[in-house]
Design goal:
The protein is mainly β and 291 residues long. The chain is built from no helices and 25 strands.
Length: 291
């Protein structure tokens, strides 16, 4: 009997007596030939790749460890599990030099060597600016990114630095449509779009009167140019007796002629004191007009 291929023969007997394959036997009567035929065992080798690990299993679901002996024609499932599926991706998986897809099956026909290469994902970062100024993106290892478009690895830390030109101020800064604070630090984990809008600086203008009567027009005291210190300002309102009746910090054009406690103030003249983000103070008179 041949023992070529993936099987081996052992325990060969003729009429109960051990014989070797290839021996000559003279038939002198009934003969009974017996043998044990077993699949050959082959070695499965692999090393876990960086950023992930292999999970190699048989058709019965048994996990195969490196160096395991596996029988001929066993079906193996080859799977790579990433440490972070959002941050890493599979470059290739190979079995005995043949490239396969993740979670593919491989039939054992000899020794099996499994390998894989994983890589960190790269993301496109786009930075744009409207108005007069620059928008710089900086990484300690990479330096300044190319603007307006560059690519970086997943988990890259970037410092966002908007630089308005002289006479201009930052009006808004957002990342993928969400507000972003000035001089923020971000971690890139997806395609990223950062946008800065600059506006030319303008003088503050304080209305001399407003009509908080609930008609939807001129119901609140709106300061022109407030955007220049909208996140860092203080407004205080005083009555004729120099008693403070209203305070907001920051103020966002919401004063409707009421006190801090919600009491309606009578028509008349009031003193405003407005402090900007730079510490400059403006004072003047404002009238509440009630019909």
């Amino acid at each position: 009997m041949s023992n070529e291929g993936g099987y081996k023969v052992s325990g060969l007997t003729m009429n109960g007596e051990p014989v070797q394959a290839g021996d000559i036997w003279t038939i002198k009567g009934d003969c009974r030939l017996e043998a044990v035929v077993e699949p050959r065992m082959y070695t499965v080798t692999y090393e876990h790749p960086m950023y992930g690990k292999f999970v190699i299993t048989t058709g019965e679901g048994e996990e195969v460890i490196p160096g395991a002996e596996i029988a001929y024609r066993t079906e193996l499932k080859v799977e790579v599990r990433l440490d972070d599926s959002e941050g890493y991706e599979i470059s290739w998986i190979r079995v005995n030099g043949v490239e396969i897809e993740n979670e593919s099956e491989w039939t054992v026909l000899g020794d099996v060597n499994i390998s894989a290469l994983l890589r960190i994902k790269r993301w496109q970062v786009t930075a744009t600016a409207q108005g007069e100024g620059e928008l710089l993106l900086y990484n300690e290892d990479l330096g300044h990114l190319a603007i307006p478009v560059d690519t970086v690895e997943h988990y890259t830390i970037l410092r966002v630095n908007p630089l308005p030109s002289k006479g201009w101020m930052l009006y808004s800064l957002d990342i993928d449509g969400a507000d972003l604070q000035t001089d923020s630090t971000i971690m890139v984990t997806r395609e990223t779009y950062i946008h800065a809008e600059y506006r030319q600086m303008e003088p503050y203008r304080f209305p001399v009167a407003f009509t908080p009567n609930g008609d939807g027009y001129n119901d609140t005291w709106v300061i022109e140019g407030l955007w220049q210190s909208r996140n860092d300002n203080t407004l205080e309102i005083y009555d004729r007796d120099q008693k403070r009746v209203y305070k907001a910090s920051p103020y966002a054009d919401e004063w409707n002629g009421e006190t801090d406690n919600g009491h309606v103030l009578p028509a008349g003249n009031y003193v405003y004191k407005f402090r900007t983000a730079t510490g400059k103070v403006y004072m003047g008179m404002v009238s509440i007009v009630r019909n």
